[in-house]
Amino acid sequence: MRFGIALIFSSLLVAHEATAQVRPCGANELDRQLALVADPDLERAMIAQADAELEAFTAAWAANATGAERVDYTIPLVFHIIHNNGEENISNEQIEDAVRILNEDFNRLNPDWDDVNQAFLPLVANVGISFKLAKRDPQGNCTNGITRTVSALTNDGTQTMKDLIQWPRNKYLNIWVAASADGAAGYTYRPGSVNNQPSWDGIVILHDYTGSIGTGSVSRSRALTHEVGHWINLAHTWGNTNEPAVADNCDSDDGVSDTPNTIGWTYCALNGASCGNDVDNVENYMEYSYCSKMFTEGQKTRMIAALNSNTAQRNQLITTSNLAATGVNDLPTLCQASFGSSARQICAGTPVDFTDLSYDGVTSWQWTFTGGTPATAEDAQPTVVYTEPGTYAVSLTVSDGTNSLSTTSNAYITVLPNPGTAPPVVEGFESIAALNGPEWYTVNSNNDNTFQVTSSAAFSGAKSMRLLNAMSAAGNTDELLSRTFDMTDAQDIAISFRWAYARRTASDDDALSLHISNDCGETWMLRKIMRGSTTLPTAPNTSGNFVPNSATQWGYTEVTNISATSHIPNFRFKFVFEADGGNNLYIDDININGMPVGVDEIQAPASSLVLMPNPATGQVRLITTLSRSAEVRMSIMDATGRMIISQDLGSRPAGEIMIPVDVGALAPGSYLARLEADGAASVARLVIE
Q: What is 610-688's CATH number, 1.10.8.110, 3.40.190.170, 3.90.190.10, 2.60.40.1930?
C-alpha cells in the first residue's frame, strides 16, 4: 500500500461496454480543483495530511474490529438535477430507481451477487449502508430529496455547475445529475481530498448513468455504486493509478487485503488473471469490467471506517440527530403540491406533457388548464394541446385521501403563433417596452444580468438590446429568443443584424452565437459564432462601462447558411452570449429577409432592380426599367454600408437599361447594389463568389 499524494485522484467512471473504449479516472480533475485555491501547494500538503490521518484511522479501526460494531448506517441523500429543459431533467421515478440500486448493492440484495466467481463468493460483503432521500431541507422545510435547477451549466459538469446549489455536506451526500460530468460518466473525490474544501465534496453523474429506467439502463446503473465507493474512501481494485489494464498496476495496491493486486479490467473477463493471481476480482464494483456485482469484506471495513472518521465530516452524516434533522425516517406526509411539463414555450397545436411533482403519498389529482384541451384532468401525467397563441395559467390540486394542497402558476405556458409573422421583418426595438412576450424572450440561467431594451445606445433610432456583461462570471450564458416567423414562401432565408462589443482586456474571449430552429425551439442549430478573441470586438478594449459612441463602433453581419428545411411556418432564431470577462454587448437593427435599416428602397422612377448573374464572379449586370428619363447613379456597398464602387451614369432615357459592373476585385461575400434615379433608389443584395 502506498500513502501520500498518490492516493488523491478524482474518480471518473465512464461508459465501457465490452467493445467500447474506456476513459480512465484522471488526476487532472484534482489539478483543476487545486487551481481554484490561492495556494495550491499548501492545499496539497493539507490533503496529504488528511489522507494520512484517515489511513491511520482505517488501520486502527480494522485492527480493533471485534464484529460487535454497529452494523447499519443510513446516509441522507439529495439529488440536484441540473438541466436545461432537456432529457437530463429526469423523472423522480428514475432517481428513486437509482436509490433502490444503491441500497441493493450496499446490502447484498442485488439479485446477481451469488453469481460471482466461486473464488470470491465467500468474500461478498453486506456492507450495511442504507441510502435514503432527505425529507427535510437545510432549513427544516419538507422536501422529497430532489432539487431541480435550470442552467446551461448542465453541459459543463465542473465545479462551476456544482456551485449552483449544494446542501451542507455534513448533513447530506450531494449528488448532481447533469448532461455532462466534465467529460466522463461520473466523478467524485475521496474524503482526504475534500477535507478542507466542503464545496468540492459530492458526486457528479450523467443522467443516463443514473438508475436503470428512463434515460438510464441496467448496463450503466452501477456507475453510481462505483462513485459512492470512492466517496467512502475506496480506490480502484488496481490501486491509485488512473488507468486500468496496465502491467505496472501490479505494483500498486488499493489498501484492501482481500482484493488481489490486478492490472484492472475494461471488459468482463470472468476468469481473468493477472499479477500472478489464479483469478482476479473482476466483478468488483470498483473495477471497470462492466459486470460489477460485489464489494469484499475488506472493502466493507474500509468504508465503515471512513464513515466513522471525522475526515470530511463523514461521521456527522450518520448520527441519530442528523437522521432526525434530515427527516429520512419520517413517515410520508403530503407537504407540497408541484408540477412540471415537457415544455413551457410552444407553438400553437403542439402537445404538452404535464407531470405531478408533488410529495408525498398523493392519491388523486385535479388539474385545470386555461386555454388548453382538455381543460381539466384527473391523472398524474396528462397531455394537453393549446391551439391559440397566448400565455396561460395551470393549476393543480393534490390529495392523499385526507389532506389537500393546491398550486397555481399564472403565466406557465406561452403559446406562439403558428404560422408566425411573415417576412420581411425589421426589428430596431423602438416599440418594445418589455421582453418575454409577445415578440422577444430571454433565458437567464444564472439569474444575473440578461438582455434588456436600452436607450443608452443605438445604431439607428433611439433603442437597442443590451446585455450588461460587467458582472457576469466566466461561463455564464444568456439567450435572446425570437417569436415565430412564417418562412414557407421563402426562396432563401437571410438574417442580418448590427452589434457593438468591447473587451476589457486582451485575454477576454466572450462569444456571441446565432442559432436557428425549424421545430419552434425544441432543437437548435448553430449558424454563426463570433468570439472576443477574433471577430466580436467592434471597439478598442475598454476598462470602464462600454457604450458605443459612434456608428464606427458597430459591426454588421448577415447569416445566410440556412437551408430549405427551415422554410416552415414556425421558424425561430436566438442569440446566445457566453461570458468570459469582457464588456457589454449591444444588438440592433435585426432584419429577416430585408435590407439593413436606413437603406431607402424607393421604386419610382425605376422598377425593381435585377442583378445578373447573382451570385457573380467577374462581372454583374444591373438591369432596371425607367418610367421616364432620369439622372442615374450606380453604387456597390459592403455589408456595413461602406461605398466600394460608385459611378455617375448621366442622363438615361425611359425604358430598360442595363449597366455592366466589374466586380472581379471584390472579396467573396454579401454586398448591396444600389441604383439611384433622380434621387430615388432601388436596392438589391449581391453575392460575390
A: 2.60.40.1930
Scan for cell 422612377, then name that residue. 605
d(CA 508, CA 401): 58
Task: Please report, in angstroms and rounded to a whole number, the separation of the first and last CA atoms in the chain.
Answer: 67
How far is 412 from 384, CA to CA, in rounded Å? 13
CATH of domain 425-592: 2.60.120.200
φ and ψ of 251, to 5 deg: -90, 5
| DSSP per-residue string spanning 73-130 | EEEEEEEEEEESSSTTS--HHHHHHHHHHHHHHHTT-STTGGGS-GGGGGGB----EE
* Shared fold status for 5-237+298-326 and 610-688: no
**pLDDT tens across 96-114, in order?**
999 999 999 999 999 999 9
With residues binned 3-state (H G I as helix, E B as strand, rest as coil), the percentages for the chain, rounded to 5, are: 20, 30, 50
Active-site residue, from 55, 88, 227, 243:
227
C-alpha cell at position 120: 470470491
Has 96 been annotated as catalytic? no
Q: Burial-class residue 544 by CB neighbours within 10 Å (0-12, 13-18, 19+).
A: exposed
User: Distance between CA atoms of 88 and 214, rounded to whole angstroms?
Assistant: 10
CA pair distance 197, 195, nearest whole angstrom:
6
Question: Which is nearest to 662 in space by CA: 681, 645, 680?
Answer: 645
The pLDDT value given to residue 605: 47
Give the Cα-Cα-Cα angle 341, 345, 350 (nearest 5 degrees): 80
Judged by DSSP in three states, 582 sits in: coil
State how far the Cα of 182 lies from the Cα of 376, in Å rounded to an integer. Answer: 42
The residue extents of the domains of the chain are: 5-237+298-326, 339-416, 425-592, 610-688
Residue 242 has pLDDT above 80, yes or no: no
CA distance 617 to 687: 9
The whole-model pTM stands at 0.74
Q: What are phi and psi of 422, to 5 degrees?
A: -80, 140
| Helical packing angle, 92-106 and 223-231, nearest 10° | 60
Q: Output the CA–CA distances (angstroms, integers) from residue 88 to 3, 152, 351, 623, in the order listed.
A: 38, 11, 20, 56
Task: Give me the mean pLDDT over the 291-306 stretch.
Answer: 96
Q: Which is nearest to 646 in space by CA: 655, 637, 638, 654? A: 637
Note the CATH number of domain 339-416.
2.60.40.10
Distance, in Å, from the CA atom of 522 to the CA atom of 347, rounded to the nearest integer, reads 10
What are the tens digits of pLDDT across the range 630-642? Answer: 888 888 987 555 7
d(CA 682, CA 313): 75
Helices (H) and strands (E) in the chain, counts: 9, 34
Q: Which amino acid is at 103?
A: N
- Give the integer Cα–Cα distance in Å for 517 and 367: 31
Homologous superfamily (CATH) for 5-237+298-326: Collagenase (Catalytic Domain) (3.40.390.10)
Mean pLDDT of the chain: 89
Q: Using the CB atoms, write b or e for 451-461: b if 16+ within 10 Å.
A: bebbeebbbbe
Q: Please check whether residue 362 is in contact with residue 338, taking contact to mean a CB–CB distance below 8 angstroms.
A: no
Q: Are residues 364 and 398 in contact, defined by beta-carbon separation less than 8 angstroms?
A: yes
pLDDT given at position 640: 53
